[in-house]
Design goal:
- The chain starts with a strand and ends in a 20-residue tail after the last helix.
- It has a five-stranded antiparallel beta sheet.
- A hairpin with a 2-residue loop joins β3 and β4.
- Among the domains are: 102 residues, TATA-Binding Protein, CATH 3.30.310; 87 residues.
- The protein is built from 16 helices and five strands.
- GO terms for molecular function: alkylated DNA binding; DNA-3-methyladenine glycosylase activity; DNA-7-methylguanine glycosylase activity.
């Protein structure tokens, strides 16, 4: 097993759990885990690069620093493990983007429109200066995850994904750190998703529309990944839009984490328009109303939504939760 360890100094405040935690899908995500032992926080996740599996660990060495800005500017220790030297190099040269080093909020916070945000969001930014939008480059992982989350509850999406990843994902590379979670997995390769038998989709709770869309994506994954490497985000969005079963919501969710897109807004989300409307005006709205409300912050709309989530603003519940559907017995 090959290993790389290095320190990265942030160009601006970075809060590790608030930034990398945006990738997590539930407390028992087989691809992501946070360990806290004796006050020391480590973040673990996995990736694929150049056809090989990689284990990643992020933490900061303990120091008694009480100033928030100074704490969030401390160097970050990155550790990588893989059987492939090329994979270590590929992830090692891009991992600063995972940490949001290229997600500079200054153009947003220095814009006159920033002060037009509700006071609760301005305060949320001041109290959480280290939240960043991660950019992992892991297109297949985020695209398939987004498709799995289309038009279903989080319970349904996470349960179905977890079942398939645990069955078909490789075990994470083993490190020499005793804190490594024992059950971490690597997201299965696109070829695995493209060839899953129908009974696996069915017993994992996937309806036909989502399973077909995932297969359609997986069959085009190689060309889409190649297109991503050209750094033409607009071309990637157009290519995703051409995949049957993928629409604006899935594209936005994919780009938010794959390239850290600061303006990708998840139109069509079951709750988002209501939440944005409530946060900005005190009243719920629809998708068209949300787009209009966010217009003053064009170019930074996902950052506004990120602040709403950090501030934990939610419209008071007025009805029952959307009930999960069990497709296994249909």
């Amino acid at each position: 097993m090959l290993r790389a360890t290095f320190m990265l100094t942030p160009p601006h405040p970075v809060h590790l759990p608030q930034t990398l935690g945006q990738m997590a899908r539930g407390h028992y995500d087989p691809l992501f885990r946070i360990t806290r032992l004796q006050g020391h926080t480590k973040i673990w996740t996995t990736a694929t690069a150049d056809g090989s599996d990689v284990l990643l660990s992020f933490d900061r060495l303990p120091e008694n620093i009480y100033n928030l800005h100074e704490r969030l500017m401390r160097p970050i220790r990155v550790r990588l493990w893989s059987e492939s030297a090329q994979a270590l190099q590929t992830i090692g040269t891009s991992v600063h983007r995972w940490l949001g080093f290229e997600d500079d909020w200054s153009a947003f916070t220095e814009h006159p429109a920033f002060q037009k945000l509700p006071a609760s969001l301005v305060v949320a930014h001041r109290e959480n200066p280290g939240v960043r939008i991660p950019s992992t480059g892991q297109l297949t992982r985020h695209a398939i995850t987004a498709i799995a989350e289309q038009r279903v509850t989080g319970i349904e999406a996470m349960g179905g994904l977890r079942a398939i990843i645990k069955r078909y994902g490789n075990d994470a590379p083993r490190s020499d750190d005793p804190d490594q979670p024992k059950d971490l997995k690597v997201f299965p390769d696109a070829s695995v998703w493209a060839s899953l038998p129908s009974w696996v989709w069915h017993t994992s709770g996937f309806d036909g529309a989502r399973s077909r869309a995932i297969v359609e994506y997986a069959q085009r994954a190689d060309s889409l990944e190649h297109l991503l490497r050209t750094h033409n985000v607009a071309a990637v969005a157009r290519a995703l839009n051409a995949v049957p079963g993928i629409g604006p919501w899935t594209i936005a969710e994919t780009l938010q984490q794959t390239v850290g897109h600061p303006d990708a807004i998840s139109v069509g989300d079951y709750h988002l328009a209501h939440t944005v409307g409530y946060a900005l005006t005190g009243r719920r709205t629809n998708d068209a109303g949300m787009i209009e409300l966010l217009r003053p912050w064009a170019g930074h709309r996902h950052r506004v939504v990120t602040l709403i989530k950090v501030a934990r603003i939610q419209e008071p519940r007025k009805s029952a939760r959307l009930a999960p559907q069990d497709h296994r017995f249909h």
